[in-house]
Design brief:
- This protein is mainly α.
- 69% of the residues lie in helices and 1% in strands.
Length: 430
């Protein structure tokens, strides 16, 4: 039968003393079988079948290049991992439709995906196949710490995928994984598994940091979907917090070719903004847009009002968190300039003195906008209490760096914010 024939392709017979020709024939057989299975997996019914379940162990061994599958190509290993992912996803979807839960990946699939991703060094198609399984593991697991510890070793490969996967579907999954890894593993203080060297923050120009920044530069310079843009902004904040302000300067990088191409207009080249300037401008725009949507009431009659408001709150929270990071970073960069540890210049994508000044002005404009919201009794009452905390954190952060900016407004505002009336009303809102 067809299944028996596929089984013989997937499990080629190979003697322990196989010569090069026998090994090559076996790998050709397995490669063909894996390619056929991957094609059949486009049918969710086949993907979730008992036949696929029977072959799961074979797929995991092939994806890990274990045993007789050691000679498989990256493309064949990617096919094997794609089959594991297709089966797992089909089962998850089937359980959800029936109101069930509790599905777990087959033993060894997560470890095989991690090994494949590290081995791929970010190259396709193996990287994408591995990312799918790791992402699904994070979504399904109830104890995230162990998964995060195991996957943190993949950060350099994930950053390479982010850099290279311009406009591909895998980009959002990679952004999500990197965000989780940075917040849970590094900023959350998890210890690495024994014998595993994780990326360190001492240098702001390690290859993984450069790949990450280049990938984010491309994403944030492009017309990406809103969901992707905000995930990228959240990742910028996480990596900058871990790596330090100097990472944001992109000191050793030139803008990616895709970003440079966007600056060419009519045969003339305009100055490509630095990564820091790009992120700062986006942060200002997104804070203003989110606050406008939350405060102006124009969606009152919209049947999707609740979803719009939830998205605006999420976007505002992400943007305010990044704003705090940028305030600290600009202050640190100014200190580096004063100490002659960082040089300002007008090269493409680099930070010039003029641009640093404009970046500071942009942050000050946002500070004034936040003050205006907090000064308006009606406006802050209409906001989610935890979003008000975010606004207060931003004000506090800016006061710490520049206590003279809008000093009179701040002096009038602080007594009001910390009297019993404000705090009592805030607690009742919570």
């Amino acid at each position: 039968s067809g299944v028996s024939f596929l089984d013989s392709l997937l499990k080629p017979k190979m003697s322990a003393s196989a010569d090069a020709e026998e090994s090559e024939d076996a790998m050709m057989s397995a490669t063909l079988g894996l390619s056929v299975c991957r094609a059949f997996c486009r049918s969710s019914r086949f993907a979730a079948s008992k036949t696929m379940e029977y072959w799961l162990g074979t797929f995991v061994d092939a994806g890990a290049r274990r045993g007789k599958y050691a000679g498989l190509s990256d493309e064949a290993a990617a096919d094997a991992l794609t089959c594991v992912f297709a089966f797992s996803l089909a089962k998850v979807n089937a359980n959800v439709s029936k109101g069930r839960g509790g599905f777990q990946l087959v033993d060894g699939a997560f470890e095989a995906a991690i090994g494949a991703l590290v081995r791929s060094k970010g190259e396709q198609p193996l990287a994408s196949a591995a990312v799918g399984i790791i992402d699904l593991t994070f979504a399904l697991t109830e104890v995230l710490d162990d998964a995060v510890r195991a996957a943190a070793v993949c950060i350099p490969a994930l950053c390479a995928v982010l850099h290279n996967a311009v406009g591909e579907d895998v980009q959002l999954r990679v952004l999500s994984l990197l965000y989780t890894l940075f917040y849970e593993a590094f900023l959350g203080g998890l210890e690495a598994p024994p014998g595993v060297d994780l990326p360190q923050p001492e240098s702001a120009n390690a290859p993984w940091q450069n790949d990450c920044l280049s990938g984010l530069w491309i994403v944030l310079s492009s017309r990406t979907p809103r969901e992707v843009r905000f995930m990228a902004m959240a990742l910028v904040s996480a990596v900058a917090t871990y790596s330090g302000a100097k990472w944001l300067t992109a000191e050793k990088l030139t803008p990616p070719p895709v970003v440079l191409a966007g600056a060419v207009s009519g045969g003339a080249q305009k100055k490509v903004p630095s990564f820091l300037a790009l992120v700062t401008q986006l942060t200002r725009v997104e804070i203003n847009v989110a606050l406008h949507e939350l405060l102006n009431g124009e969606h009152e009659s919209n049947p999707n009002r609740q979803e719009i408001m939830q998205a605006a709150k999420r976007d505002a929270s992400t943007s305010l968190c990044l704003y705090e990071t940028l305030i600290d970073a600009v202050s640190d960069i100014a200190t580096l300039v004063d100490d002659e540890q960082f040089e300002l210049n007008d090269a493409m994508g680099r930070i010039s003195a003029t641009e640093l000044g404009k970046t500071l002005e942009t942050l000050e404009d946002v500070f004034r906008s936040i003050l205006s919201v907090l000064e308006d009794d009606v406006e802050w009452h209409s906001l989610d209490p935890f979003l008000v905390i975010g606004l207060l954190r931003c004000v506090s952060c800016h006061i710490a760096e520049n206590p003279l900016l809008e000093a009179q407004r701040v002096e009038r505002l602080l007594p009001y914010l910390f009297n019993g009336k404000f705090t009592g009303e805030w607690v009742s809102n919570v």
